[in-house]
Every structure is written in C-alpha cells, then in structure tokens.
Amino acid sequence: MRVKVQSKMAAVKDIVTLVLDKDHKTTVTVHLHGATVLAWKAQGKELLFVSDRAVYDNKKAIRGGIPLVFPNFGPWALGPQHGFARISRWKLEQKPEKDDSGAMTAVFTLTDNKDTRKMWDHKFKLTYTLHLTEKTFKTTLKVDNTGAETFTFTTLLHTYFRTDDITKATVSGLKGLEYEDKVRGDGKFTEDRELVTVAEEVDRTYASTPNSHIITGVIGGGKVHMEKTNLPDTVVWNPWVDKAKAMGDFGDDEYPSMLCVEAGHVATPLSLGAGQSFTGSQTLTLMDE
Which domain of life, per UniProt (predicted)? Predict the structure, then answer.
C-alpha cells in the first residue's frame, strides 16, 4: 500500500489518498473525503475524469471520479444535494491487499455520527469495497440499518468517465426506456435511440435499466462495459457550455472531456427495516479494442 498526499492537496495537511497498485499500469486512487475514487488506470489508461478545478477542502464534494450518493439523490430538504456520504470522512477498514490472483481489495466504512444525525436521524453503517484486477474495477456499497426504525434512502455511484470528444461518446442499453429529463423538466419521455449520444446539456434519469451498458468514446478510443447489480437505474449527465461556466469547481472548457454514466437506485426510494441490509455494485471492465 502506498499512502501519499497529492501535490494539489498539499495545503490541507491531513488529507491523504490511498492507492491500490496492482502493477503500476493498473491502479485505483481513493480519497478518504467521501471515499471518492479519484482515478482508475487500466493498462496505463486513466479512465476517470476529475476536474482541474476540483476543490479539496474536506468540505465540498470532489468534482469527478466516483462520488458516492447517499442517502439522497438530487436536491435534499434535510441537507446538501446528493446527501452527506460524499462529503464525510470515511474510515479505512481494510488497507489495500493483494490476493493470490494478484487482485487488489480495499474496504472503507462510514457510520452515523452527530453530524449525520443532525440531518438524518437514523443509525446506519456503509461499507464500500473496491476490487481491482487487470482490466476490471468493481465497487460495492453495502447499507446496514443498525437502528431500531425503518428508513428510506436513494443511492448512486456518480461515475465520471474521461472522453476524447463527448460528441463521439455513446451509451448502450437505453432504447425503449422511460426517462426523466431534468433539463426540460416537463414530464417523462421514452428513449428511441439504440445508442445515446450527447450534443447538448443532458441530465436524464432512466428507470429500470438493463444490468449492462457499454460506454464508447472513453479516453484513447476505449470502451468500458458497465455491469450493475441491485442498481436498477442509470443517470446520464453532461453540463455542456452554460452550466460548465456556472460551476466554480469545473472548468469552462472541460465538458467535452467527460461523461457521467451513473448506476443507482434513485427512481424509487429503498426502504430498509431494522437490522436489514442492502448491497449494490457496479463492475467496470476495459474492453479489448
């Protein structure tokens, strides 16, 4: 395991990132603030986007990588947008370890505390497991209700992919599905394209999607296969020109270099009784060209 302070974060002395290093060409970098995955490199290719203007202040969510959304997706009356998981300090439960096959695994946890209970008065434990092989990166989130009362929540893995040119990127597996369009904001629509492309601001939540998507146009002309388990919805997002200019932690000219394809359980909230648990995961695989 290597633990290092990134140069751009040097002003905040107590912030560290951890690296799962399989063979130097295949690595994952994780920030303890939000347990945010900052980088996934497979065969020497960096596949995730992080804004050059991302803020590392232990307060704001990090703009890029794979932020964790819990217990609420979107605007939240009780607290910050997308909940508190992505802005909380997580505990390293199991340091990065290599098994006999060469795969790397690390585990992070977050439990309720006085700050979370001020917003959302429930007892819980989140366990986030990262598993890295040569071409595959699996992220698994387990939610345990450790209290005596039922709670409801939504959750999502807010994955930012790096692209060469957003207009050439595509997402498969969404044709014929109903989606909510937050840009238009005037109801629900049905996707009629075999491959979803982006040529304007996009913020769509597709409900009850297949467990598999292929994202093309990832940096270097690559393709990534996304396989989801217990995460039935898919969000596709790109801020485009105007919204990019309006975000302080996102460069004005960065929107062509990223595409969010986000696996989640957001269209319908989950209900978890006392002592019950929920587990959802996504597996990202760099496909052969």
Answer: Eukaryota
Tell me the two tokens of residue 37.
């995955």
Cβ-contact 139, 234 below 8 angstroms: no
220 burial (CB, 10 Å; 0-12 / 13-18 / 19+) is middle
157 vs 262: CA distance, rounded Å: 6
CA distance 262 to 67: 10
Q: Residue 249, class by beta-carbon neighbours within 10 Å (0-12 exposed, 13-18 middle, 19+ buried)? A: middle
Start-to-end C-alpha separation, the chain: 31
Query: Does 129 have pLDDT greater than 80?
Result: yes
- Distance from C-alpha of 67 to C-alpha of 87, rounded to nearest angstrom: 9
Residue found under tokens 């698994």:
140
pLDDT at 220: 87
User: Which stretches of 79-232 are assigned E, i.e. beta strand?
Assistant: 91-98, 104-111, 124-132, 136-145, 151-157, 160-162, 170-172, 178-181, 188-190, 195-196, 202-206, 212-218, 222-229
Tokens linked to 127: 């366990």
Among the residue ranges 13-27, 76-90, 173-187, 228-242, the one predicted with the least confidence is: 13-27
Question: What domains appear along the chain, each with residue ranges and CATH number?
Answer: 2-286 (2.70.98.10)
Whether 63 has a binding-site annotation, put simply, is yes
Q: Which residues are catalytic?
A: 158, 262
What pLDDT, on a 0 to 100 scale, did the predictor assign at position 11?
36
Amino acid 125: pLDDT: 99
pTM, two decimals, is 0.94
Which residue carries 């140069």 as its tokens? 7
